[in-house]
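Researcher: We're teaching a course module on how sequence relates to structure. For the next exercise, students receive a sequence and then see the predicted structure as tokens, so they can try to spot secondary structure elements on their own. Here is the exercise chain.
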Amino acid sequence: MRGTATMSLIGLMALTSAILAGATIWLLLTDPVGVAGAFQEGEVSPLVSVLARALVDALSSLLQYL
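Model: And here is the predicted structure for the students to work with:
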């Protein structure tokens, strides 16, 4: 039972990492100015807010499609 919980946790972490990596690449392709501005300022919060906005937009588009 302990091994199953560990594998589930590892799988969840891998899925979360893959989603964040894909969203970051997608954000880099769709909003390079926002990403460049965040890197230039050296702060993570603008990048996180732009990434969150992109994820919300993608999710709302997906829900409208369904």
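Model: If you want an answer key for the exercise: The helical segments are 2-30, 32-41, 45-65. The chain has one domain: 2-65.
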